[in-house]
Amino acid sequence: MSFAADLVTALERATAGQPVPRVRALHLPPPEAAASKNGEFCALELDDGALGISYVLLGDTLTRLASTDDVLHLVGMDALALAREFAAPSGAGGDAEIRRTLGFAAANALSRTVMERMGFAPPRATDSIGGIDPQAGDHVGMVGLFSPLLKQVTAAGARLTVIELNPDYAGHYDGYRVTLDAAALEHCNKVLSTSTILLNHTVDRMLAHCRHAERIVLVGPSAGCLPDPLFARGVTVVGGSWITDRQGFIDALRRGESWSAFAYKFALTAADWPGLPASP
Asked: How far apart are CA 107 and CA 229, in angstroms?
């Protein structure tokens, strides 16, 4: 099955026999923040206080979410039912992107609910690249162009290949190469990927090219889902944002301001994760 289907199955198992929270609200950044990193994510809030983050700048997702009254119908919706939209067959047009974005936010929010019920909180990250520890002689693959992180890899003397979807970025640069060919990951012994590959359903295809990597790190604010399906696919570290002040986070997001003071970055390995409790 796909990652999305496996995640929904894990959520169904984790909530079996327990009450499933409902959607309380969808929180969006202001349109004027879309040009900055503070306007890249939405947050879906459940009635138990859990928040789930999802990227909103794929296509015209943010514009459509902000301009339609359809999101009002989300309030009161069963969170698991909405999460299933993340794994629904993809269709053409913006509606599929909207369903996928909201479903992914619900999956992340419900994952937070499950972790809270387990009494689990992930450990804080010690760096911004998931402990990938680039060294001279390494060939690091980067899925998605993390401009602020390029120097952390190249300064260590590691060879760097970046996989991008945008053909405008393709080419050779000082210290690294950008290509559209995901097969280039076959030659990398370490891989650092953006969590956006979860949302756009390319994660299975990308990870299929990482069979020779000894370390696969997936990071991003929206990497807040149950980690089991990712660990099963060879991901060694999942790095996301753990919200510590719900109201402060919501207020900052809705103002288009930094919400870093209301969350911490975590780095979760299989050794840190106790696994889902046995089904009742």
From this structure: 13
